[in-house]
Structure formats: C-alpha cells, structure tokens
C-alpha cells in the first residue's frame, strides 16, 4: 500500500509541475498560435470547467470499469499516455499557428489528466479498506504539496528553457511514473482487503450509501462543506498570501515565503491521516476547517512577518487535514460501487472553486472597492461555515450509529 501511494505521489507531483509549465508558457504560446493575449485568462477558466466535467465523467468511467475489469491500471496508463502526448505537442501546435489544433490539444490534455483524480481514488477504494484509506491518500497528496512548494522556484527557471524542452521533461517523466501504476496495482491486488464486486452485482445508488455519509441530505451537506472549504482556500492562498507578505515586508522574496504554506501542508499529511483514522473523514475535515479559519484570521491581523509565517504554516497544515479527509470521506461514501462518482463530485467542486476565483480575477473583481475590505476575512468566514455544516453532519452520523 505504501509503495502504491509513493507511485501516486510521484505521478501527482509531476502532473502538478506540468501545470506550472503550462501556466508559465501559455501567454507566449497563445500569441505564437495567432490568438489574442486576452484569451489567456479565459483559457485557464475553460480548463477548470473541463476539469470539473472530466472529474465526473472519469469517475463514472472508473466505476464502470471496476465492475467489468479485474484491473484498470492499463486504462489509467492509456489515459495518461494520451494526456502526455497532447501536452508534448502544445508548443508544436503554437509554432504551426494552428489555433484550433492548439485549443483541441489543450482540451484533450486537460480532460484526460482528470484520470489522476477520481479514478485514482476509485482504484484506492477498490483495494484499500475504509480504515486504511487515509494513508495512501496522504502520500498521493504529498506529491501535490511538493509541487506547490516548488512552484515559486520553478516559474522563473522554466522561462529560461525552450518551450519544447519545458513541455517534454514533465511529459516524459509523467509517462515513466504512470507506467509504474500497472506494477503498483498488481502489487496492491495481492493484499486486497475485499473482493471487487462482480459485473452482475447491482451497485447501491449513491444516495442510499450509508458507510460514512448518511443519505442524500448528508451527502448534500458534505458537498456544501467541500465547496465552502475550497472557496476559502482559493481566496486565502492564491489571492491573499502574496499581498499580506508584501505588506509586512515590501522587499520580501516571495519564492521563499509562499512555499511555507505547502511546507505546513506536507508536514501535516501524516498526522492528518492518523487523525482521520481516529475521527473519521467528516470529523477531521471539521477540525481542519476550524483551524484554517483561525489561522487565516490571525494571519490577516498579524503585524509582524514571523507571526504571519507561523499562521501560513498552520493554515497549510489545516488545509492538509481538509483535503485529505475530504478525499477519503468522499471515496468511502461511494463504497457501493460509486467511489469514482463520489470522489469525482468532490474534485469537481475544487475545480469549480478555482474557476470562480479565476473568473473574479479576470474581471478585476478582487480590485472592486466593495470587495477589497472583505478579502482578509472571507477565507475565515467560508471555512467556519464549512465547519458548521460538517458539525451538523457529524452529529447526524453519531445519531445514526447510536440508533
């Protein structure tokens, strides 16, 4: 199980580094392809829409494949191969001044890369018990945290490379890492905790699933909490972090300060997995949202750089609790043959939250006089609302168990 989680961490980290390369080079490639520079932010917004839709589609596909195939590591490998090929061809399409081809390749890369989220959680749900799921999920998210920490260092250095080399390195490395999925799934299958459902077995509808999230109202509360938590993160880190650091130290080097959030994230993944095993996904997510709210509010009120750094590290640790527990709780909620759909819904909301933030930024919404005074308190407010919904759900779960 640990080896499988390490493979997933490597794959996720390489994909996230590829996203950094894509964002850095997108403005230049768009102009080279003959499109207007104004398209860049809207292309990024479109990417998030595709991510959201593809998360659901890939999740449903993973559920169906699980009932039809003994292993679907080869299917994941095929999806990643298509994704890497489309990514690799983006600079060539831009040089060819073929905007339609460039857009098609971008959408193919975005859509197929969604196989790294919901299908991966469905794969884990197939082989790993509910009590053990948090640990490989934490390893998988570790790759995301490492890439997030490296992003500020990589961005200026990626610009020094040729676009062909910049896109080729993560694409080839991702394919090599993804090829290990087949071996890792085979090894994981030797220790499978429960047999996979047979193709003839009828899966229980998601709204009737009762392992972790009880009934449709409970599922709605959980998704509402995920959406609020994701919005809190999208404002706290991408929008507020850099201005808060620069306000206290105008000469600050952001590439050394912004990764501190992800340092806290990575350091907290192992404790978060242990806490999730003890409290369950919903309880751990509620704790994470509460701590994140307090850390965000304290950071906004900080008047010294060391205090702000401490708050950012704590907020990163809290976000690790939220993201890990949300991923594992969603997968456990679908342990009726719908792991992919349940986790896909969770990841789709994360993508939609990013899309909402990008849309506000593209429309200069964060500079609006009526919005600016609320930016520092918005993450804490959003996280506390999420914690409130999770508390209601947690109490409902306890009453259901006691009934």
From TrEMBL:
Keywords: Membrane, Transmembrane, Transmembrane helix. It comes from the Bacteria. InterPro entries: MFS_trans_sf (IPR036259). The chain crosses the membrane at residues 40-62, 74-94, 100-124, 133-153, 165-184, 219-239, 251-270, 282-301, 307-326, 338-359, 371-394. This is MFS transporter. It comes from Vitreoscilla filiformis.
């Amino acid at each position: 199980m640990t080896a499988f989680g390490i493979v997933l961490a490597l794959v996720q980290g390489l994909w996230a580094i590829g996203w950094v390369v894509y964002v850095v080079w997108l403005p230049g490639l768009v102009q080279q392809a003959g499109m207007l520079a104004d398209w860049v932010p809207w292309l990024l917004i479109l990417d998030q829409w595709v991510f959201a839709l593809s998360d659901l589609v890939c999740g449903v596909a993973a559920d169906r494949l699980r009932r039809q195939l003994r292993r679907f590591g080869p299917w994941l490998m095929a999806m990643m191969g298509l994704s890497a090929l489309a990514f690799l061809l983006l600079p060539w399409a831009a040089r060819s001044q073929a905007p339609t081809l460039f857009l098609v390749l971008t959408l193919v890369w975005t859509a197929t890369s969604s196989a790294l989220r919901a299908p991966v959680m469905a794969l884990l749900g197939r082989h790993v018990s509910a009590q053990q799921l948090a640990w490989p999920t934490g390893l998988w998210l570790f790759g995301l945290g490492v890439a997030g920490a490296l992003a500020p260092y990589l961005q200026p250095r990626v610009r020094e490379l040729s676009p062909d080399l910049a896109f080729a390195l993560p694409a080839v490395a991702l394919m090599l890492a993804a090829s290990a999925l087949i071996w890792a799934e085979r090894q994981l299958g030797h220790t499978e905790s429960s047999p996979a459902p047979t193709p003839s077995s009828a899966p229980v509808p998601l709204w009737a699933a009762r392992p972790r999230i009880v009934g449709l109202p409970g599922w709605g509360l959980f998704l509402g909490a995920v959406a609020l938590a994701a919005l809190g993160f999208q404002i706290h880190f991408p929008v507020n972090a850099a201005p808060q650091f620069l306000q206290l130290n105008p000469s600050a080097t952001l590439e050394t300060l912004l990764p501190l959030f992800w340092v806290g994230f990575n350091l907290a993944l192992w404790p978060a997995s242990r806490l999730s095993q003890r409290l369950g996904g919903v309880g751990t997510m509620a704790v994470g949202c509460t701590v994140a709210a307090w850390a965000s509010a304290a950071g906004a009120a900080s008047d010294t750089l060391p205090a702000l750094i401490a708050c950012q590290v704590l907020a990163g640790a809290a976000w690790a609790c939220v993201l890990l527990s949300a991923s594992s709780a969603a997968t456990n909620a679908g342990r009726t043959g719908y792991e992919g759909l349940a986790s896909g819904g969770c990841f789709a909301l994360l993508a939609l939250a990013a899309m909402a933030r990008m849309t506000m930024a593209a429309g200069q919404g964060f500079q609006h006089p009526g919005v600016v005074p609320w930016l520092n308190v918005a993450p804490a407010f959003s996280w506390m609302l999420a914690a409130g919904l999770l508390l209601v759900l947690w109490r409902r779960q306890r009453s259901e168990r006691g009934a």
